[in-house]
Amino acid sequence: MPIHSDVPAGDLARLRIDRDAAPRRPWLLWSAIAVIATAAVIGYPTLREYVDARRAPEVEVVRATQIATPAGAEPSMLPVLVATGYVVARHSSDVGVKTGGRLAILKFEEGTRVRKGEVIAEIEHADIAAQLEAARRAVAEAEAQRAQTIAARDEDRRNVDRQRALAKDGITTTQALTAAESALAVSDARVTSAEAAIASARARVKVAEEALENTYVRAPFDGVVIKKRAEVGETVSPFGVAGQATREGGAIATIADLAELEVQTEVSENGVAKLTGAMPAEVKLQAYQDRVYKARLRQIFPSADRAKSIVEVRVSILDADAFVKPEMTASVTFQEQPTGRTPQGAAATTQAVLIPKRAISVQNDRPTVWVVTGGIAARRPVTLGAERLDQVEVKSGVLPGEALIVNAPPALADKARVRIKGS
Question: CB count, 10 Å around CB of 371?
Fold first, then answer.
């Protein structure tokens, strides 16, 4: 019990005990110390694990993806190469004139549909039409001349026949018969000359008709006028005129067959080896990114551009619609069907596992990846397949859905603890 004193220290007789004071409990202090020590012992591993986890390097991970298509379904395609280019018509022509002159009539505007052989423009041709009329009248005149010479020849032939009959009876002289025969020969020559004159006149008609036809501009095939290059009243020439681009020559319109559109693109020499004949592809227009068109590789040009180290490639658009227009910018994604094995007895499938190229590192000249499981990074060798743009096919070593480190830190050790970025 505590002893209280309100007297000087030397007066021991006056000391007393305060029996109402609370008793002291020293065991509480020791109990608290014991609890703290026990908590420290129990929590130390967890605390150390937390500290180690915070000190671990932070890494970015991606998941390995698998593309699989069941038997009978349309196969999923894997991208192989992407190229950009422009939409062009497979059949396109700068339609020009055959003869020079002033445009009198234009029967088209941009967007006009034309049929093969249809007259789309005319050049002033009054003088040529007059020449044609004169040539036709010359034919008529020559034919009339031939008719006269034929009539004269027939009369001379009858006269010869009479003279021969008279000479047989001794009534006429040999001189008269000879004169009649000479006149018939002259008549035959005149008929031949008249027929030649007719042929010459008809030839002149043909020349005039061709000259007149050359003043008409006709569509070379069914298509649509995509560019108008001249106006009524302009003077045009097969070789172009002042102020007209040299490449246009005497073109007055550009006609394209919009039923067959394709993408003209260029592929680097290193990428050509990834392309195969009639390879499937997808086309996207820069103007309509939400629209995807089916396409197929039509042609790889037989020569390359040595200055640019590229090869021109043409890709046919199979389902083009009204949104696809010539000269639009387009991107082409060349594709191929994935290949893979199916377990015996299972339904046939086509499958492939893809990982980003950034997840691959090289150790001892062998490709490896870092697989993260439970916060632990483990190095694992892999067998790689074909490249797919920024991804590569993995034939073995990685399972679909596994987390892979991309751009792994150089000092990362095998079985080391890591922190996943964003978690």
Answer: 21
What's the Rg (C-alpha) of the chain?
51
Q: Which residues pair with 336 in a beta bridge?
A: 78
Are the C-beta atoms of 285 and 332 separated by less than 8 Å? no
- Between CA 258 and CA 72 the distance in angstroms is 34
Give me the residue label for tokens 């036809």. Answer: 213
Q: For the segment 47-100, what is each residue's pLDDT rounded down to a tens digit?
A: 455 545 556 788 888 888 876 554 444 455 677 888 899 999 999 889 989 888
Collapsing DSSP to helix, strand or coil, 163 comes out as: helix
Residue 19, pLDDT score: 59
117 with 186: CB under 8 angstroms?
no
In the predicted structure, residue 28 carries a pLDDT above the cut 80: no
Nearest-angstrom CA–CA distance, 379 and 415: 8
- Which tokens belong to 10? 């030397």
CA 129 from centre of chain:
48
pLDDT at 192 over 70: yes
* Ordered DSSP codes for 19-87: TTSPPP-THHHHHHHHHHHHHHHHHHHHHHHHHHHHHSPEEEEEE-EEEEEETTSPPPPEEEEEEEEEE
Angular region, 276: left φ>0, alpha ψ -120 to 50, beta rest: beta
Give the count of beta carbons closer than 10 Å to the beta carbon of residue 47: 11
Burial of 169 (0-12, 13-18, 19+ CB in 10 A): exposed
- AA identity, residue 56: A
Q: What is this structure's pTM?
A: 0.57
Going by the DSSP 8-state scheme, the letter that residue 347 receives in this structure is P
* Cα 357 from chain centroid (whole Å): 26
Q: Taking 70 as the threshold, does the pLDDT of residue 346 lie above it?
A: no
* Closest residue by Cα to residue 232 from 97, 107, 99, 114: 107
Helices 126-169 and 174-213, packing angle to 10 deg:
160
Q: What three-state secondary structure class fits 182?
A: helix
Would the CA dihedral through 228, 234, 238, 239 be positive or negative? negative
CA distances from 422 to 59, 60, 407 (A): 9, 8, 16
- Residue 29 pLDDT class (50, 70, 90 cuts): low
Q: Are strands 58-63 and 419-420 parallel, antiparallel or unpaired?
A: parallel
Amino acid in position 20: D
CB within 8 Å of 39: residues ≥ 6 apart? none
